[in-house]
Design goal:
Layout lengths: L2 E3 L9 H5 L10 E3 L7 H8 L3 H10 L7 H11 L2 H4 L7 E5 L2 E5 L9 H19 L3 E6 L3 H10 L5 E8 L5 H8 L6 E6 L3 H13 L1 H6 L2 E2 L6 H18 L7 E6 L4 H11 L4 E8 L4 H8 L1 E3 L20 H8 L4 H15 L1 E3 L2 H4 L7 E5 L2 H15 L5 H12 L7 E5 L7 H8 L20 E3 L3 H10 L3
Helix pairs in contact: 3-4, 3-11, 4-6, 6-7, 6-11, 9-20, 11-12, 17-18, 17-19
Bound molecules: pyridoxal-5'-phosphate.
Pyridoxal-5'-phosphate (PLP) binds next to helix 12.
């Protein structure tokens, strides 16, 4: 399997070549040259598989430059009951007739990013070892991404993580989760500023190409193809749990921000998984909902802060992948829209002819507000005795608006309520339960540095800690 860029770079690359990369050299995103097709016989064979075996089968269709025995070992080491809490890894529970919740949030940081990041940690360690190279991951986080990256990379050979976060601004739970890590290869840097200051520092350091090359600086952001690929697996796993026979249609509702999660659903559907609808749910930051209603993509100046903060985005970094497919893989038009037009006009509008096929890709959308979240969390607790987190509530609310008679809806649970206790208390008057392993988290000793908003200081710190 070879990979191409959405912006037309003629070069084709193997999986291992793009594994450690972010953007393609022409600024585009990587996609496989074609989506492998899964026929009825394959679906029949896969239905009985456990999660790790299923992951191996799916990944093998996209990865041909890692020996199968090695890939199997990496996958088996990743999707275990010890790491993901249950044998099913992404267990499905029935909420009401035809509505299910698939838990993607039973990993170490209680959010769905663990599903991909845990595999990425093992793949990075393997590939860096094979090349005899090192990688220093520099990132900025306001919560979920940073902690998922740190828990995936902790103790991994050849990898160091330098994670910037706004000092005192993450939730107490998130701070405790990240700062209690004692691994020597994890560096928490609390910046005396806001999240944008952290991101600006990462940009400043990354723009210093000489520094970047000399110190082998990389990232693990959501545009990484391997992350997206790992997420394809749970669409299949959810399908097999929610249906009795192959061929039955099923819909998924996906709480969305950067379009990474639902883009994996698009890949699964493109492979032939019988997905009726991909329901995209946004919060008040509704740039994607606007697109799927109108064909107009309008990047916002800044994201609004909401009670489903992991979906607070002003532009969706994976969205270009879908638009490329929607445009029949026209890379010249994709380059024009996401390059010059976006830079000049802050967005673009597809022509009616370009936008019309979107429905054929199964996409529909909706938005949810703070009041909707409170009502959905309260209702789910009162009627079903189930607590759901704020992001999952957005998915459930919008998913219900797009039900088709006789077609089950699987809502992806992207985080556990324990991470967002304040809103859960507001909605239900109760404290969300926390997994036993995380009791007393806030009392653990912490390991982090506080630094001024200054890229030079951060650079010096990185160089001093590479030995
Ligand atoms: C990251 C995240 C999302 C959004 O996922 P995207 O892939 O960015 O669309 C939704 N919910 C939670 C809890 C997250 O951490």
């Amino acid at each position: 399997m070879r990979y191409l860029s959405t912006r037309g770079d003629p070069e084709r690359r193997g999986f291992s070549d793009i594994l450690l990369e972010g953007l393609a050299p022409d600024g585009g995103l990587y996609l496989p040259e074609r989506y492998p097709q899964v026929d009825a016989a394959t679906l029949a064979r896969w239905r009985g598989l456990g999660y790790a075996d299923l992951a191996f089968e799916i990944l093998s269709l996209f990865i041909d430059d890692i020996p199968p025995a090695d890939l199997r070992r990496l996958v088996d080491a990743t999707y275990t009951e010890a790491i993901f809490g249950t044998k099913a890894i992404t267990p499905l529970r029935r909420l009401e007739d035809g509505v299910f919740i698939e838990a993607l949030s039973n990993g170490p940081t209680l959010a769905f990013k663990d599903m991909a990041m845990q595999l990425l940690g093992n793949l990075f360690e393997y590939e860096l070892g094979r090349r005899g190279e090192q990688l220093n991951i520099l990132g900025a986080t306001s919560g979920d991404t940073g902690s998922a990256a740190e828990y995936a990379m902790r103790g991994k050979k050849g990898v160091r993580v330098f994670m910037l976060s706004p000092n005192g601004r993450m939730s107490p739970f998130q701070q405790a989760q990240m700062f209690s890590l004692q691994d020597a290869n994890i560096h928490n840097i609390a910046i005396e500023g806001v999240f944008d200051d952290c991101q600006d520092i990462v940009k400043a350091v990354s723009n210093d190409l000489e520094f970047k090359r000399r110190n082998r600086i990389g990232t693990v952001n959501s545009i990484n193809w391997a992350r997206l690929l790992a997420q394809v697996v749970y669409y299949f796993a959810g399908y097999f749990q929610a249906t009795k026979v192959n061929g039955e249609p099923l819909s998924f509702a996906v709480p969305s921000g950067n379009f990474g999660n639902i883009c994996a659903g698009h890949v699964a559907r493109s492979m032939g998984l019988p997905i009726r609808r991909l329901v995209l749910a946004t919060n008040e930051n509704d740039v994607l909902d606007e697109f799927f209603r109108s064909g107009r993509y309008r990047v916002r100046g800044a994201a609004v802060e909401t009670s489903s903060p992991s979906m607070d985005i002003s532009k969706a970094s994976n969205f270009e992948r879908f638009v490329f497919d929607l445009l029949g893989r026209d890379s010249a038009r994709t380059r024009e829209l996401f390059g010059a037009t976006l830079a000049r006009e802050g967005g673009f509008t597809l022509t009616p002819a370009e936008f019309a096929p979107a429905a054929g890709f199964g996409f529909v959308s909706g938005r949810s507000t703070h009041a909707d979240r409170l009502a959905t969390i309260r209702d789910t607790w009162q009627r079903f005795g189930t607590m759901i987190d704020t992001h999952t509530a957005d998915g459930l609310k919008v998913g219900r608006e797009h039900r088709d008679a006789g077609v089950p809806m699987v809502v992806l649970e992207t985080a556990q309520p324990a991470k967002f206790a304040e809103t859960i208390r507001e909605a239900t008057g109760r404290e969300p339960e926390r997994p036993a392993a995380l009791q007393g988290l806030e009392a653990l000793p912490r390991r982090f540095m506080v630094m001024a908003v200054d890229a030079g200081t951060v650079k010096r710190y990185i160089e001093e800690h590479l030995q």
